[in-house]
Structure formats: structure tokens, C-alpha cells
Amino acid sequence: MKNLSFIAFYLCRWHTVRVLPSLYDCTENLKNTMWTDTHTHFDADIFAKTRQHDWQKAQALGVSAQFMMGVVPCHFAKIEKLAEEFTGTFFALGIHPMYVMPMNLPQAITQLKQAIERNVHNPRFLGIGEIGLDGFVDTVDWHKQVDFFTAQLKLARDYHLPVFMHIRKAQDAILKYCKRFQIQRGIAHAFNGSEQQAGRYIEQGFKLGFGGAFTFTRAKNLRRLAKTLPLACIVLETDCPDMPPAWAYRQTNYSYHLPRIAEQLANLRGITPHALAKQLQQNSKVLLQ
């Protein structure tokens, strides 16, 4: 992460100018290597003893950058510290819908707002995530999820930040609220909707995250979407330590699986890994502009 040089582009909030990094024009050679893992939980405790080795292995295989997601306020400081310590590591901060039940909304949103203010000029800070809605579980109150999600969308709107979204059985609801708050930049993480829903996310300005799930041959709809959707709307991710690819089924997932996931996507689409990498670089770059 050290000694980065950045192309500056600016997002204005009142009289404040925020400078964000260009991932593909820096001294870490992100432009000349291949893959960005656009969704990780690199702060997870399971990586505590092997974190440095795991990231070095991923980098050796061509993973030059990762986007680390926040899920609870008590981990924000840890995430910020890891982003400083590990090269190529960028981060988002947010409150995941699966963890909202014990939280007090005003207190949690105040903590998130303070963290945003603290990092608004930090070139490693990407946006707000992981946030969203989960209609699959029945143990997390839907209305409370919506309250947290919309409060975070307001912050994204006010600070002109992209969002990184968890979406399970909530595709249409997520789109509704994003349109309401005029959110037009971010990633629909682990996309698993229909072709029509994919089109609506793309029209709204979002990239669609694909990862280990499409590597299973039984995932016919995902594989069809990965093959046929416009490549300009796709980004790759691992969601490590979760959502492992087929060859690591029921095992801990790592960013070093990303190049093999990318190879499978290239094979599905009938293009070379180099051509895929070039477009995916552009996709991630556009996300941050």
C-alpha cells in the first residue's frame, strides 16, 4: 500500500474536495498486473495467523488489489489499519444487514458517519459497504434492515460515494431504494438475479459482482449471465473467506483463487485472460470515477 502515486479525481461535498486513487496508474504496477478482488472480508479473524502469507500468495498469482468490506462499526478501525499495512488494499465501511438486530440505528449511523469523515481524504477509502437487504433469512427484521439500508444510502448520496451491496431475495427492493436516493455507482455483490434485473442494475449505473458461485456447473443461470451480460458491467470477487469456488467447496475462500475464477470466466466467454483482465481493469476504474 506504500508509495502509491494517484491520478486525482474529485468528488465535491459542499466546499470539500475528495481525492480518490486510480488503481491502475500507480507505482504498485496495478496497471501491469491482472486482477482486482472487488469484495473481500480480509479483516476476518480466520485470517489472523495467515493474513500476510495469504495476500502475498494472491499477489504472486496476479491479484494486485482488493476491496475490503466493513460490516460492523466495531471493526472499522481494524479495517483502516489493515488497509495501511497491506499493499493494494482498499476499503469500504458499512453496516451489513445481517448484523443490524442488536444495533441502535442513530448510534450506529453516527459511528459510520464519523468514520466517513475520518477517511474522506484517505486515498484507500472507497465508499459505503457492505450494506443492503436480505430477504432470505427470517431472523433479521425486514423493516429494521430497510431503516439501516436507507440511512446508509443517504450518507452515500450526501458524500457522493459508491455503495457495495449485499442482495439476497431483495433485487427489486434494492433497486427501488437506490433510485429513490439517486445512487448510481457501486457494485451489486454476488449478483444472482434475472437477466431483466441485471439490465435494471446496469441501467442504474451499477457493476455486477461475479465470483465462486458461477464456477459450479449446476449454477446454470449464473453461468449464462456471466457468459452473456455485457462484459463492461462485470467485476470479479471472491467474498473471502466465504463463497468458495467449486474446487474449494466447503473450504475457506481466499483471494488467491481469483485468477482461476477469472480463467473460468474467460473460458465461458471465449476470450483470453489478458483481454478479460484489460476490460475488468476498466470496469473497476470507472467505478471509482
What do the pLDDT scores average to?
89
Spatial sequence of strands, sheet with the most strands? 3-4-5-6-7-8-9-10
Q: What are the secondary-structure elements, in order, as H or E?
A: EEEHEHEHEHEHEHEHEHH
- How much of the residues is beta strand, in percent? 15-25%
CATH architecture descriptor text: Alpha-Beta Barrel
Taking all Cα atoms into account, the compactness measure Rg is 18 Å
What is the terminal-to-terminal distance? Answer: 20 Å
What is the count of DSSP helices, taking H or I runs of 4+ residues? 9
CATH topology: TIM Barrel
By CATH reckoning, the class would read: Alpha Beta
Classify the helix fraction into a percent range: 25-40%
Give a brief description.
With 289 residues, the chain is of the alpha/beta class. The chain has nine helices and ten strands. It has helices at residues 51-60, 76-85, 105-119, 142-159, 171-180, 195-204, 220-228, 258-269, 273-287; strands at 9-13, 16-20, 35-40, 63-68, 89-93, 125-134, 163-168, 186-188, 206-210, 234-236.
How does this structure look, described?
By secondary structure, the protein is an alpha/beta fold. It has a single domain (9-287), classed as Alpha-Beta Barrel (TIM Barrel). Helix content is 38%, strand content 19%. The chain has helices at residues 51-60, 76-85, 105-119, 142-159, 171-180, 195-204, 220-228, 258-269, 273-287; strands at 9-13, 16-20, 35-40, 63-68, 89-93, 125-134, 163-168, 186-188, 206-210, 234-236. The strands form two sheets. The protein has an eight-stranded parallel β-sheet, with helices on both faces. Strands 1-2 form a two-stranded antiparallel ribbon. The chain is globular, with a radius of gyration of 18 Å.
